[in-house]
Amino acid sequence: QIFKESTSLKKKYITHASATNDFSKIAIGLATEMQVYDVTATGLSKYIGKNDFGQFTHQVSGVNFLKDDLNVVFASTIAGEIHMYDLRTFSKIHTFEGEQFEFVYSS
Fold first, then answer.
1. Closest to 62 in 3D by CA, of 84, 47, 40, 46
2. Which end of the chain has a smaller Cβ tally under 10 Å, C or N?
3. What DSSP letter does each residue of 39-100 carry, written as one string?
4. CA 106 – CA 40 distance, rounded (Å)
5. Rounded to an integer, what distance in angstroms lies between the CA atom of residue 15 and that of residue 24?
6. Which tens digits make up the pLDDT trace of 79-105?
7. Are 66 and 72 in contact (CB under 8 A)?
8. Interatomic CA distance for residues 25 and 23, integer angstroms
9. Using an 8 Å Cβ cutoff, are 78 and 58 in contact?
10. CB-neighbour burial class of residue 29 (10 A; exposed 0-12, middle 13-18, buried 19+)
């Protein structure tokens, strides 16, 4: 077991985790929230957002950083939503939901 946090009778477990290529940031999905941390020589420093930063109605199914900009993080939920955040401003850039996506893969 990697992580366990109890709040009254409610338990939260990591549902997904991701790190930037240089391991300077990590993001984790915990039930219906996303937490993001800077990795430093002295430990982890949590990003504390405003309002509903990283809070969702549905369970987090995935988290990932934008390859070309490590300050942009995505969280997907089991409802099919994809939430896009900018860590510099702690703001939600966009929520994709009920939309058709075209994915382009490169090797």
1. 84
2. C
3. EETTEEEE---STTTTB-SS-EEEEEEETTEEEEEEEEETTS-EEEEETTTTEEEEEE-S--
4. 31
5. 21
6. 889 999 999 988 888 888 876 555 554
7. yes
8. 5
9. yes
10. buried
Best CA proximity match to 27, nearest among 9, 53, 1: 53
Q: Which pTM does this prediction carry? A: 0.75
Q: Return the minimum-mean-pLDDT range out of 1-5, 15-19, 33-37, 72-76.
A: 1-5
Q: What percent of the chain has pLDDT over 70?
A: 77
Asked if 14 and 5 count as a contact pair (C-beta separation under 8 A), the reply is no
Q: State both tokens at 43.
A: 């430990």
Q: Which positions ≥6 away from 18 have C-beta within 8 Å?
A: 26, 27, 28, 62, 63, 64, 65
- Hunting for tokens 């993080």 — which residue is that? 73
How far is the C-alpha of 70 from the C-alpha of 79, rounded, in Å?
25
Phi-psi region of 4 (alpha: psi -120 to 50; beta: other; left: phi over 0): beta
Structure tokens at 107: 């090797």
